[in-house]
Write a structure and sequence with these properties.
The complex is a heterodimer of chains A (599) and B (246). Chain A has 599 residues and is α/β, with parallel strands linked by helices. Chain A is built from 15 helices and 22 strands. A five-stranded mixed β-sheet of chain B has the order 2-1-5-3-4. In chain B, helix 6 packs across helix 9. The N and C termini of chain B lie far apart (70 Å). In chain B, strand 6 and strand 7 form a beta hairpin.
Chain lengths: 599, 246
């Protein structure tokens, strides 16, 4: 019998689990299913390190968090969404505390907070430097107590079922048995995270293939602001493993081959021995990654077998602070780079980290397709605009996971019935997955096409792009897309067929890649993480608006624009360093950080 | 240094084979490569049918545990160069049913995990408006180590008790129960006791300590088990002298 639920969640990471709990607490009579291609505690939320922003200190305010977020996003954030986000973030983080999240503490037992890039107050909650890991496990373990939450662990969703203009479920493969079935539902929430794997060098886990973005896009739902891809300035070469921003907020320096703190040359303020809010190493990620590219042009980076790097210097922090505040950084450097940050410089380079864009949703996670919702990195509300600030993504998945969960619960309670036509769609999908895909004797290797896609993305839509590079990218992707119809799948087994899922993931990624490059080609300005060498200035006249890209089966995708929602912060120049508005220079350390802060 | 190394990889496809066989492949071994890179090389360049789990490649998601030359390891954190001239034999984790190739069935653990109630249990919830539960760094230190468990299953693969008696609730589940028992915010220890103290529970462990040796995150499940045995012994003495609820 076809399994059926009130709400199906695709993805069991932070957003999915938070949404599941929100639904269970809103109405325990609603049956909820978490459908995830991995066991939920394997989800990529687990890799988030530095922290989660939420105003908690008496000297901080919601307006300051909102301003930092909006200026950090180069005025592309929807300000009503940002206001809701900053207001609800502290409550959500507190709720996780009540559920057992092992937040780091002050000596008196209160929650401790740390500074973070682009933030002008200390408001980042942290659990040492494994914040995402602890949040995910807290959410997963807490979710186990709700009887109304069913799980489909290691079920791979291949398409959305849509009829009568509303979503009615999904088709999924149970990887263990190979069974392919519809899981019908009155509402579906996409919580599948990002798509970093469309690029060659990324912090993202192997499972980050833009599944949910492609599922929505194929169902006619527009993707928003897909041209905005965040490069994190500090990834380890070769592996792309992230060295958290917390390493800099605790006082780390970025230096070039001459040992010079080069960020001072890029309008990020003057170097001080101690970290200063919104200055130098605590500038926003887009600016720091762009500064790296300029250093590369000037020949001031260091060459390695895995490309040019700069150095992150933590040595002056000392072993005690490193071990207390950023122990995972040390563990990762020792294990994967064979160096000890207590006495060695860490080689780092910008690495694709986060997708500001995603499935277009409103402030409650609703998409344009009735019954379909999205939350977390897969979605674009947008609170992140053209550049997300570090430590805003973890609270985002809580705030908007909760909102999407509640809204979907309300919609599911209307009790709309599943139509018989979607079961026929499901049969079609089964035939495609078992027939065409498995029996096709193709010639193209999955890994070859994936490599070419990734190379194309880096060359056409990297930190700096141009109309010419993007137009070439569109062409090349079209060629790869064509070749992908002749893919070779040797594995004919139904049992845990990971070659078939790799082919499906490649096809998701190709659709998402096309959306990124096409959206980037249309935006003829430079804003935040989207830097066009042929249009180097921000252009508020033409582009103070979100891009919406619609898939078109018969021809090129269609790009439209939607004005940004403004409430109280009119567009202004983004200023970092000592010239930043409304503030003198505020050192982070010193009085702000009590010496006995626990971890 | 050799520029390639031999990987002997266990294969088992239930539709084709009744027992596991081994495939041998030469893979490159630059010094940065871990065992998982070798497996990915095979899957991407030589044989797309090889099946295994992996995701984060940074030792935190817990997906890629396998048996490497007889020992349970996270393959993303195990360098090929550690094995000198090779060969390197990669098999699924022991003590679990094998679904296919290097993929084991961990359903048993998932069911056991729920039984130990790995969540905060309280008589009365504090309203959010009253803020956080205060917890000093020292109180946090009491359970922090046990909260580091990534449920990678290496400890179950190494546990001789679990190997003999699959009813044993096992190292990670006990460590996670202790993670909550020792949390100053939790009041659920007595509810967990029934599951942890039952015959095949905590008493099954003879302090072999293999779980702690193989744990990639220094969780020390053996320590959790020994510490809990003491608590359980004291509690059972108490209940012997004092009826429940006294």
């Amino acid at each position: 019998m076809t399994p059926s639920h009130d709400v199906v969640l695709v993805g069991g990471g932070g957003a999915g689990l938070r949404a599941a709990i929100a639904i269970a607490e809103t109405n325990s009579k609603l049956s909820v299913a978490v459908v995830s291609k991995v066991y939920p505690m394997r989800s990529h939320t687990v890799s988030a390190e530095g922290g989660a922003a939420g105003v908690i200190s008496p000297d901080d305010s919601l307006d300051e968090h909102a301003y930092d977020t909006i200026s950090g996003g180069d005025w592309l954030c929807d300000q009503d969404a940002v206001e809701a986000f900053v207001k609800e973030a502290p409550q959500e983080l507190l709720r996780l505390e009540h559920w057992g999240c092992p937040w780091s503490r002050e000596t008196d037992g209160r929650i401790a907070v740390r500074p973070f890039g682009g933030m002008k107050k200390m408001r980042t909650w942290f659990a040492a430097d494994k914040t995402g890991f602890h949040m995910l496990h807290t959410l997963f373990q807490t979710s186990l107590k709700y009887a109304s939450v069913a799980r489909y662990d290691e079920w791979f969703v291949t398409r959305l079922l849509v009829d009568e203009g509303r979503v009615q479920g999904v088709v999924a493969i149970d990887l263990k048995s190979g069974r392919i079935d519809a899981i019908t539902a009155r509402a579906v929430i996409l919580c599948t995270g990002g798509c970093g794997r469309v690029f060659p060098f990324t912090t993202n886990a192997a499972i980050k293939n833009g599944d949910g973005m492609a599922l929505a896009y194929r169902a006619g739902v527009p993707l928003k602001d897909m041209e905005f891809v965040q490069y994190h300035p500090t990834g380890l070469p070769f592996t792309g493993i992230l060295i958290t921003e917390a390493a800099r907020s605790e006082g780390g320096y970025l230096v070039n081959k001459d040992g010079y703190r080069y960020l001072q040359d890029y309008a990020l303020g003057k170097p001080q021995p101690q970290p200063v809010f919104r200055t130098m190493e605590l500038g926003p990620r887009d600016r720091l990654s762009q500064a790296f590219m300029k250093e590369l042009e000037k020949g001031r980076t260091i060459d390695t077998p895995y490309g040019p790097v700069v150095h992150l210097d933590l040595r002056h922090l000392g072993q005690k602070k490193i071990s207390a505040k950023i122990p995972f950084v040390r563990e990762l450097c020792l294990k994967y780079q064979n160096l000890d940050p207590v006495k060695d410089l860490i080689p780092v380079r910008p690495v694709v980290h986060y997708m500001m864009g995603g499935v277009h949703t409103d402030i409650n996670g609703a998409t344009l397709l009735p019954g379909l919702y999205a939350a977390g990195e897969v979605a674009c509300v947008s609170i992140n605009g053209a550049n997300r600030l570090g430590s805003n993504s973890l609270p985002e998945l809580l705030v908007f996971g909760t909102r999407a969960g509640r809204t979907a619960a309300e919609y599911a309670s209307l009790g709309l019935e599943v139509t018989s036509r979607v079961l026929a769609q499901s049969d079609d999908e089964r035939r495609r997955l078992e027939g065409e895909l498995l029996n096709h004797k193709g010639r193209e290797r999955i890994a070859d096409l994936r490599d070419e896609m990734q190379k194309t993305m880096e060359e056409s839509a990297g930190i700096y792009r141009s109309g010419a590079s993007l137009a070439r990218g569109v062409e090349r992707l079209r060629g790869i897309q064509e070749r992908s119809s002749d893919i070779a799948i040797e594995d004919q087994s139904k049992t845990f067929n990971t070659e078939r899922t790799a082919a499906l993931e490649l096809s998701f990624m190709l659709d998402v890649a096309e959306a990124i490059v096409t959206s980037a080609l249309h935006r003829e300005e430079s804003r935040g993480a989207h830097q066009r060498t042929d249009f180097p200035k921000r252009d508020d006249q033409r582009f103070l608006s979100h891009s919406l890209i619609y898939r078109n089966l018969d021809g090129p995708s269609r790009v439209e624009y939607l004005p940004v929602t403004m409430t109280r912060w009119p567009p202004a120049e983004r200023v970092y360093g000592e010239a930043a508005p409304n503030e003198g220079q505020h050192h982070v350390a010193g009085s702000a950080l009590p010496s006995g802060t626990g971890v | 240094m050799r520029d390639s190394i031999t990987l002997q990889v266990a294969r088992y496809r239930p539709e084709q084979e009744s027992e596991a066989t081994f495939d041998e492949h030469e893979v490159p071994c630059p010094k940065e490569w871990v065992v998982l890179d070798g497996l990915n090389h095979i899957k991407d360049r030589i044989d797309g049918t090889l099946s295994y789990r992996w995701s984060c490649r940074m030792g935190i998601c817990g997906s890629c545990g396998m048996t490497v030359n007889g020992e349970p390891k996270l393959t993303c954190a195990t360098f090929l160069s550690e094995y000198g001239r090779g060969p390197v034999r990669v098999e699924p984790l022991r003590n679990f049913p094998v679904i296919r190739d290097l993929i084991v069935d961990m359903g048993d653990f998932m069911r056991k995990l729920v039984r130990v109630k790995p969540w905060i249990v309280r008589q009365a919830e504090k309203p959010l408006s009253e803020g956080e539960y205060r917890q000093t760094p020292e109180e946090l230190d009491d359970y922090k180590q046990f909260s580091m468990c990534i449920t990678c299953m290496l400890c179950y693969a190494a546990c001789p008790i679990y190997g003999l008696d699959p009813k044993f609730i096992g190292p990670a589940a006990i460590a996670l129960a202790q993670r909550y028992n020792l949390d100053s915010r939790d009041e659920g220890a007595s509810e967990r006791m029934e599951v942890l103290s039952e015959h095949e529970g905590i008493w099954g462990c003879t302090f072999v300590g293999e779980c702690t040796k193989v744990c990639p995150k220094h969780v020390d499940p053996a320590g959790a088990i020994q510490r809990y045995k003491l608590t359980a012994a004291v509690e059972s003495m108490k209940s012997f002298f004092m009826p429940r609820g006294a």
